[in-house]
Task: inverse folding
């Protein structure tokens, strides 16, 4: 700059520095600045000379100022280089320690390098504590303070999943499999009326937390939300987790936001659901069989062994530890719960695995134990819990029992009557099932109509019930029509039934009523019957045998136990008997009876007190047997049909003779 000023003086100019820049002043012969009056007094040639020399000075100033700017830039660059070296000297040990901790993780090392480079490039932010970076120039003053972004926020790390304290592979159970819950989301906050977001607002989903481990989902919940299932299949095929807006997944346009890069994942996915859902997916979703190759089918019961009884006791102990409101069980309480588990399974040799139902009984039994200030739950508390549960659910059951006692619904429990049998059905009201006795009647008359199922004709019979009626026809044909056609007409009905009837558990009962009507032999009304039958006359197992026995026992008890009443069940159901103590006591004292039969012949003999009869070598039954009486009745019907046909033909012949005369 000094040389510039000296050169300018040689050219007759003085350089003056001002706040707005550099100003040049012409000098006179004495070296003093030339005033405006003196300049005006000069000749044109002298003024032109001053202007020419002033241009040279301006060029000189421009060259020298450019040189100064270049030197300033070099100085600033050197200062920055020195600052970088100083900062690198300070931070390098810290980053070196981090790099050694994450050695082998390429993306983490690249991130650390990027952070270090950004710190070096933004030294002023750290030097000013971020104050300068937070300042935002506003065109006009605002009446409120505008929140400023944190300049250090970009250096923070958003840890989606932390498995540092996890032992083994993570196991995640997702109860609500919505799309955000599975795949994560990018949250937003409203700032001055605008939704804003950043990388710290990226939230993980269950797939992230279960990455490298196991994820358990409920099928009913998962398939209620179709987008979750489709996105899950895509993720499993790609092996990547994409965090995106659910609307984008459906193809809709949304506001621009963050799009995190996909996360590679490896997972064992477990979906728990019913066999019905599995079959639907297997048949109608082509991807299902490819993605889910392992099926585990769990039953609802287990064998009743000493080991499993001990396991049931440990289950009760676990309930006590998990729920502080559950009291410990005494040995009698444990035994009663084991009996209840066998009752739920409907089998003496099995225990139910319906732990949800068992837990509800455990909690209620604990409540009654606390009400009595008992330290342990005993068998009496368990029985009271079961009785109270039934009481809350049995309104319809009690109403039907009342109608039977008053004679509104006709059910006989003593005496004898031909063609009439007490059948047994089970009504299911939610989680409460009870037995309902029903009167089944059969009428036989001359004709060729065969067996008419009144329920089917009235469109009140289901397909399985209709199948049972057809089996009766096959049995009667096998038994009675080997050498001649079976010719008779009969009708079978459930009396006082006004709703749909299905199932074949009453097919043996209907057959007994039909055989009684054909043989014209009365049946003991103190007995009720259940069981299905095949075309060979074998009595087959049915469901709900305990509820059926209980329902008829209560009817007999209300009308008076005579010692002649009881229930006839299939022999195959003997192992399913899990009766209440009152019925067991009644059977032991002879006030009530339970008969197990294997064939129709055994059952009809028990109901009528008459031998069924076995055919001889020629296929004839003894005349005093049930089938012998039936054969005689069929011959009578056949003869009556022939006589009626002959009587119809004689008038037509007389008419023909009269016409000929």
Result:
């Amino acid at each position: 700059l000094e040389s510039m000023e000296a050169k300018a003086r040689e050219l007759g100019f003085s350089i003056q520095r001002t706040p707005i820049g550099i100003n040049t002043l012409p000098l006179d012969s004495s070296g003093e600045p030339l005033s405006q009056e003196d300049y005006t007094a000069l000749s044109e040639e002298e003024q032109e000379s001053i202007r020419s020399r002033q241009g040279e000075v301006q060029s000189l100033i421009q060259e020298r100022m450019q040189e100064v700017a270049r030197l300033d830039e070099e100085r600033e660059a050197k200062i920055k280089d020195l600052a970088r070296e100083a900062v690198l000297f300070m931070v390098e040990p810290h980053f070196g320690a981090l790099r050694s901790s994450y050695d082998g993780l390429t993306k983490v090392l690249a991130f650390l390098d990027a952070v270090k480079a950004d710190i070096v490039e933004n030294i002023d932010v750290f030097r000013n504590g971020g104050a300068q970076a937070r300042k935002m120039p506003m065109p006009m003053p605002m009446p409120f303070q505008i929140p400023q972004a944190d300049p250090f926020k970009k250096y923070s790390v958003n840890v989606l999943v932390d498995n540092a304290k996890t032992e083994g592979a993570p196991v995640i159970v997702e109860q609500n499999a919505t799309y955000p819950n599975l795949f994560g989301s990018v949250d937003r906050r409203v700032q001055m009326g605008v939704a804003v977001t950043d990388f710290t607002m990226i939230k993980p989903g269950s797939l992230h937390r279960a990455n490298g481990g196991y994820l358990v989902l409920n099928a009913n919940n998962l398939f209620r939300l179709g987008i979750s299932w489709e996105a899950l299949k895509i993720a499993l095929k790609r092996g990547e987790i994409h965090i995106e807006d659910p609307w984008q997944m459906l193809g809709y346009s949304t506001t621009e936001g963050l799009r995190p890069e996909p996360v590679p994942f490896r997972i064992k996915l477990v979906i728990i659901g019913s066999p019905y859902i599995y079959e639907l997916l297997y048949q109608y979703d082509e991807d299902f069989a490819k993605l889910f190759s392992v099926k585990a089918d769990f039953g609802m019961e287990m064998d009743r062994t000493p080991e499993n009884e001990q396991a049931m006791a440990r289950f009760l102990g676990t309930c006590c530890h998990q729920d502080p409101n559950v009291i410990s069980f005494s040995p009698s309480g444990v035994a009663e719960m084991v009996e209840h588990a066998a009752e739920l399974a409907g089998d003496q040799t099995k225990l139910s695995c319906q732990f949800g139902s068992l837990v509800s009984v455990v909690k209620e039994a604990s409540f009654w134990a606390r009400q009595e200030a008992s330290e342990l739950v005993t068998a009496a508390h368990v029985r009271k819990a079961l009785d109270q549960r039934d009481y809350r659910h049995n309104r319809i059951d009690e109403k039907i029992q009342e109608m039977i006692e008053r004679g509104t619904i006709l059910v006989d429990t003593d005496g004898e009557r031909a063609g009439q049998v007490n059948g047994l059905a089970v009504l299911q009201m939610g989680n409460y099932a009870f037995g309902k006795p029903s009167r089944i009647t059969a009428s036989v008359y001359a004709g060729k109509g065969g067996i008419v199922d009144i329920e089917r004709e009235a469109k009140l019979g289901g397909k399985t019930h209709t199948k049972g009626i057809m089996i009766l026809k096959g049995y009667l044909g096998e038994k009675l029509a080997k050498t001649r056609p079976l010719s008779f007409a009969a009708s079978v009905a459930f009396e006082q039934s006004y709703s749909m009837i299905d199932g074949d558990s009453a097919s043996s009962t209907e057959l007994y009523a039909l055989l009684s009507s054909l043989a014209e032999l009365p049946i003991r009304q103190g007995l009720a019957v259940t069981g299905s039958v095949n075309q060979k006359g074998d009595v087959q197992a049915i469901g709900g045998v305990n509820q059926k026995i209980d329902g008829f026992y209560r009817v007999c008890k209300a009308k008076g136990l005579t010692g002649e009443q009881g229930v006839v069940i299939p022999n195959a159901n003997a192992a399913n008997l899990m009766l209440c103590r009152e019925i067991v006591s009644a059977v032991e004292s002879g006030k009530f009876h339970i008969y197990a039969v294997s064939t129709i012949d055994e059952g009809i003999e028990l109901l009528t007190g008459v031998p069924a009869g076995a055919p001889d070598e020629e296929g004839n039954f003894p005349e005093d047997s049930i089938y012998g009486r039936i054969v005689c009745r069929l011959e009578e019907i056949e003869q009556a049909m022939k006589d009626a046909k002959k009587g119809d033909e004689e008038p037509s012949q007389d008419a023909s003779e009269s016409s000929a005369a």
User: Anything to note?
Assistant: The chain has four domains: 1-133, 168-188+199-291, 301-393, 422-635.
